[in-house]
Amino acid sequence: MEIEIDSKKNNPLLKRTEVYFTVKHTGEGTPNREIIRNELAEKLNSKKENVVVNIMKPGFGIQETTGYAKVYSSLESSKGLEREHILKRNKLGETKKDKKEAKTSEASAGETSAPKTTPAHPQAKTKESEEPKADEAIKQSEPPKTAPTTKETKQKESKNQEKP
């Protein structure tokens, strides 16, 4: 596995160096993020904990992976600037969610309270609400009545006139 640094840009405002790299891994699978972080840290004379790999894109049909990484001046600055899921992927300490979960688990472990009771079940439906009302059942079973057409009315009128 060989790592080539395609471009390197210093960003003093955010206290980091932004690096685009290419990894050639012939005869192997896509390298692990941890391995790439180690290799980049060696090449850039930095600590592994200060390297954050953002993007890794393996090439289709070739054994090359291109990527984007950031090398921070300290671990604290990376935690302050990077998004939580990126820090989690790079296994860099606790994220905000991890800290919240740890606090809640400590708080729940410290409590010795009686077991919580579940609320009463909602009232069961009555028969009236389950079955349709009688009027609605009749309306549903009968076909709708239609108004007679003009021919039918004329025929009825003519029959009524002939009878007297």
Count of helical segments? 7
Q: What is the name of the CATH superfamily of the domain at 2-95?
A: RRM (RNA recognition motif) domain
Shape: elongated
CATH class of the domain at 2-95: Alpha Beta
Contiguous low-pLDDT stretches (5 residues minimum) are: none
CATH architecture type of the domain at 2-95: 2-Layer Sandwich
- What percentage of amino acids are in beta strands? 15-25%
What's the oligomerization state? single chain
How is the biggest beta sheet arranged?
4 strands, antiparallel
What do we call the CATH topology of the domain at 2-95? Alpha-Beta Plaits
Describe this structure as you would to a colleague.
The protein starts with a strand and ends with a helix. It is 39% helix and 22% strand. It has helices at residues 33-43, 75-81, 84-89, 96-110, 127-130, 134-141, 150-162, and strands at 2-11, 16-24, 51-58, 64-72. β1 and β2 form a beta hairpin. It has a domain at 2-95: RRM (RNA recognition motif) domain (Alpha-Beta Plaits, 2-Layer Sandwich), CATH 3.30.70.330. Strands 1-2-4-3 form a four-stranded antiparallel β-sheet. The protein is of the alpha+beta class and 164 residues long.
